[in-house]
Amino acid sequence: MKQLKLRINPQMVFLMVLMSMISLFSSSLHASDDSRQDTGENSRNKVIAGKQVWMKENLDVGRYRNGDPIRHAATREEWLDAAAKGEGAWCYYGNDRTAGATYGRLYNWYAVNDPRGLAPKGWHVPTDREWSELTAFLGGERVAGGKMKAAGSALWRTPNESASMSSGFSALPGGLRGIDGVFAFGGESAYFWSATEHSPSLAWYRLLNYHLATAVRSGEEKIDGMSVRCIRD
């Protein structure tokens, strides 16, 4: 019986290997896409406080829940332009991409309030009332800040007053971007938006400071850039 000999075309083999490498490279790029939408399903990144379930890390996404991109406003001019248009925007503190891995992104309140949804599916940006429920569970605003802050001075400026991280919330001093588009208070303060409007130009937020044990509740300009911490639906 005559045997059939299989001829291997070196050019075809090279082409197949090249196509496989391109596919792997493309998948790698997609996986590290700056505009990803995190699902927030990793159980190690959850904090349970009473009946509430919070994410343990600040939000770090560049797309709304429906997949539309959130405007990246890096320069001062871009940031102020987004504010003037009432348009959602994000940036990294100091426009330092590496800061995102630690502190997440800063968002203006227009992104928080966008009907397309800033938080991943199954989560939402906490209301002012939900923030108050958290601080009440931790013993009240006068002491809640210390229980929410990550302990130590590696990232927080000393003395990092009363920081115990006993709640597991692990708040870090991500700073903010002010109404003038200037970055401030990195390493000193953590600012978190709520989803609740305070007035036509202001929204409620929470502030943790390096020199205080309190969790401050106040209203701030919607054009500011602050961190976002999500809570389970």
Walkthrough of the structure:
- The chain has one domain (46-232).
- It is built from six helices and twelve strands.
- The chain has helices spanning 10-31, 76-84, 97-103, 109-112, 128-137, 141-148; strands spanning 46-49, 52-55, 71-72, 89-91, 106-107, 123-124, 176-177, 183-184, 189-197, 202-209, 215-221, 231-232.
- It has a three-stranded mixed beta sheet with strand order 3-4-5. A three-stranded antiparallel beta sheet has the order 9-10-11.
- A hairpin with a 5-residue loop joins β7 and β8.
- α5 (128-137) packs across α6.
- It starts with 9 loop residues before the first helix and ends with a strand.
Structure in a nutshell:
The chain has helices at 10-31, 76-84, 97-103, 109-112, 128-137, 141-148, and strands at residues 46-49, 52-55, 71-72, 89-91, 106-107, 123-124, 176-177, 183-184, 189-197, 202-209, 215-221, 231-232.
Question: What labels would you give this structure?
Answer:
alpha+beta; three-stranded mixed sheet; three-stranded antiparallel sheet; 6 helices; disordered N terminus; globular; 233 residues
